[in-house]
Amino acid sequence: MIPLSGASATIGADQLRGIEIATEEVNAKGGVLGQPLKVIVEDSGGRPPSALDAARKLVTVNNVPLVIGEYSSGNTLPIGQYLVQQKRIHLNPASTSGLLRDLGEGHFSLVGLDHVTTKFAADDIMAQGWRKAVIIAPNNAFGQGVIEQFTKHFKAAGGQVLASIAYPEGQTTYRRELQQLAQAKPDVFVYSAYSREGAVINREASELGLNETPWYGYLLSMSTADSDPKTKQGQYGLEVNYIGPNGGAYQDAYKKKYGEDFRTTWNGYTYDAVKIAAAAINKAGSTDPAAIGAALKELGKGYEGATGQITFDANRMRDSQPYLKMKVDNGKLVLR
Fold first, then answer.
1. Strand, helix or coil at 129?
2. How far separated are the first and last CA of the chain, in Å rounded?
3. Is residue 309 within 8 Å of 244, Cβ to Cβ?
4. Cα 139 to chain centroid, rounded
5. HSE-up of residue 107 (Cα within 13 Å, Cβ side)
6. Residue 7: band (very low, low, confident or very high) from pLDDT cuts 50, 70, 90
7. CA distance 158 to 226
8. Are strands 188-191 and 301-305 parallel, antiparallel or unpaired?
9. Dist. CA 326–CA 153, nearest whole Å
10. pLDDT band per the 50, 70, 90 thresholds, residue 195
11. Do the Cβ atoms of 225 and 160 come closer than 8 Å?
């Protein structure tokens, strides 16, 4: 389940690419349990109600044992709760809210959660010499977690968070929120936004002259994916690692199939999700969700994915996550 429409449709389209390549590779090697692997792709619509509808359809109509998705924590949390209640396996390929840790047996996260990511961001910003920050992020489980955890880590590192705003999703303008943050006169604007809302924020910040102050994007590719290159030029930020030591073959397959480099960070995580799901079904020798879950725990003691080694902790969360320090240069994300 991925957001093929709504504010994160650009990300969802790239997630789909990872799913397509992984499915082709699994089936080229015999599929699962001697049959072709069939992946049903549902559009979450990028909203909790439509995401829940899609999850219910996958369980009650398609009777799937395992669901991969979504992207936003605000959608991943309710569908994860539903799937765990229904005793299905849920693989999270992108969401980072710390609340995911509490979903319970049956939920597995393939990406590091906020408490790890925000500390990396706080340390990175302090290293730039920026001591006074303001922060804006979506008013949902993801954004609230980012604000809370970043503020905690930035203060611990000696910085000050002068103001923070959790903005309502789906607005046509964020000018009022930006002007409110600017009054604090920060050294740096810290932000995280789904791609289309990020485009609005970056355009309006540019119009207000606020991009003369440094901007730092938490998950920079997500926040800038739909932004005009002129409005995001020079931004700093972090990314979850695109590719691990054993991901070269996947990177080559992506470029060959789609004729371009990775569009976002997130395709590799859906690729890994499909591949480890197929491996778990084969290891279990069954499509029984409980058997698949037990197999995932065994595989998650050091699974070599395209995004790096995946090891689950006692709560089935990825226990370490490599990050990249990035900046925007001439419209592209490059390593710093």
1. coil
2. 33
3. yes
4. 16
5. 25
6. confident
7. 34
8. unpaired
9. 20
10. confident
11. no
